[in-house]
Amino acid sequence: MFDSLTILGIETSCDETAAAVLRRHGDGQIDILSETVHSQIDEHAPYGGVVPEIAARAHADIADTVVEKTILESGLQLTDLDAVAATSGPGLIGGVMVGMMTGKALALAANLPFIPINHLEGHALSPRLAADCPFPYLLLLVSGGHCQFLEVTALGAYRRLGSTIDDAAGEAFDKLAKTLGIGFPGGPAVELLARRGDAARFELPRPLMNRPGLDMSFAGLKTAAARVADANALDDQGRADLCASFQAAVTDCLAGKTERALAEFKSAHGGETRLVVAGGVAANQSIRAALQKVARDLDAVLIAPPLRHCTDNAAMIALAGAERLAAGRVDAAGLEFAARPRWPLDEASAQADPTYGSGKKGAKA
Ligand code: KG4
Ligand code: ZN
Question: Ligand 2 centre and the CA of 1: distance in Å?
Fold first, then answer.
């Protein structure tokens, strides 16, 4: 057995260059010794979305600095580490390769194991960074790149219960913000305007709400909102009303499907029921409040990690590495791992239903 494990984690799968040094004690307690998240928002903002080539170059420019600073701030040396873990998929492949190669180079130089991490496993384990969150729990992962329900029963045991069949919820927020010209990333901008808007002004669809199952869809809602914007010469109040109407529709969809998912999860597992929400969209107060109500109504506990661990970060990647190392589930051939642009957490479900993405079409899926 071991007293503690100290891991460097690296995350570069989208538009954040992040590193963290984390210590996992023998009893499972976690200390984050240092962490850095460098956001590329300014570089992508002029385009109203993440541009893969710009992201890859920006990661390449700064990854070494971010990692060096993070190790320095931990007060440790490379030789004090037990392993290096880096996101090796899924995500924008140029960025993933930058982080993965940085991690491999450090591991090779310091003669440490390299642990390739599935970014989605990082999100799935993220509630355990700060809260006591024993298995099993239901996870709603809702970000700009993902939107899915996962049943998390153990390390490496993730069952996808449902997911968006087209766009992720955050992507729909970003598209509406782009259409209205109110900023990037769109979620915070839409939420801000929605506060003074009338959610009943525009009637928008709640896709798949009347269908059984836990799949979601946001493409139709996104298009419907864009049509309203195009068809009406919206003034400031009109834009606020559209944001409020849109946010109410997304909230209804997420809360409605979560209610169903949680009821099924509760009857399958019994005992204390935990609902975890992670991903950038979890920052939205209207959505959080609706999920809180769903949890309360079903006598479950809602665990929402602090926002910095909901959005992309490297502490969750280091944690996944530490958990894998502690459980002896590290492949000796980590240095040979090839980056995977697509890497479903639940490979069996993905193979059975290949039409479903991890929450986003295209490169980020
Ligand atoms: O988890 P994240 O940082 O990156 C991805 O993995 O995508 O999530 C970013 C997404 C963006 O689409 C952003 O618009 C959305 O989360 N988001 C929000 C809010 N804050 C961020 N969506 C709704 N309301 C918010 N307050
Ligand atoms: Zn993510």
Answer: 32
